[in-house]
Structure formats: C-alpha cells, structure tokens
Amino acid sequence: MDGINKGIFKTYDIRGIYPTELDEKTASFIGSACAKHFKSGVFVLAYDARLSSKTLLKNFLKGFENTAKENKKKFKIEMVGLATTPMYYFLVNHFKAVGGAMVTASHNPKEYGGFKIVGKKAEMIGGKEMEKIIFNFQ
Predict the structure, then answer these.
(1) Domain 12-137, CATH
(2) 24-42: string of b/e by CB count within 10 Å (b at 16+)?
C-alpha cells in the first residue's frame, strides 16, 4: 500500500506517531494483511489505554474481517478489550489462538500508537517478518 511508512516497523512491534505515521487507513491495511496471513481459528484482540487505541483497533478489525470474508476464512475473534501486554500474551495461549493483535505503543509517549502482532503460543511477529506479511499482501 502506498503511504505506509516503513519506519513504523520495529524489531518487535509496529509503532508510530498517531495519526501522522500510523493512522486508521494503515491500521485497516495491517488488519487485512493479518487476515490473509493467519490460518482460520481463534484470533485475540486487545488494546491499551491510549486515546487512539480504540480507533486503531476498530479499523484493524474492519480490515481483518473484510479480508477474512473475501478469502473465505473463518476466525473466532476473542475481543479481550483493555488489557496489559502480559495479559494479552497469556490469553493468546489460553485460547490456543492462531494469533493475535494488541493495539499498544508500549513504553512510548502518548502520541504514539502501534501493534504487537503474535502467532501461535504468543510468538512475536515483528520487524522484517511483519514487513514481509504487510508488503506481500499488496
């Protein structure tokens, strides 16, 4: 997708200043790429307490659901809601999920937004691997 800032892809997650580096359109595109990448199954969603998190989650989910439907994939979304990162990792394992996404920019200042994307057993997907998932989706 034109307009995705490659600088938001960090070693362990995706983060950028909201809404200049990471916005709703980018969140939807990331959601779409994740739906295409993951096999059908349980997918866990969570968010942190940042003001932008619910908006980014809503757009991630919209992209995820639309692409899952287009690709005839069936996901059971476990919407965790507001959570800590360790709680999110625990729940990915608890639900035996194929993966998950948490909207969080971790320790960064409040103007940041981001995503922690994990696979089975809460294995981190970040950096070059996440870039490959996103940009191969195009």
Answers:
(1) 3.40.120.10
(2) bebbbbbbbbbbbbbeeeb
Spell out, as residue ranges, where the chain has pLDDT lower than 50.
none
Residues 6 or more apart whose CB falls under 8 angstroms from that of 104 comprise 13, 47, 48, 50, 53, 85, 114, 115, 116
Would you call 28 a catalytic residue per the annotation? Answer: no
Looking at residue 127, its pLDDT comes to 84
> How many helical (H) and strand (E) elements, i.e. helices and strands, does the chain have?
4, 6
Question: pTM for the full model?
Answer: 0.95
Hey, where are the domains in the chain? 12-137
- Among 32, 52, 53, 106, the active-site one is 106
Please tell me the distance from the alpha carbon of residue 132 to that of residue 110, in angstroms, as a whole number.
28
Q: Cα dihedral sign for 11, 22, 81, 68?
A: negative
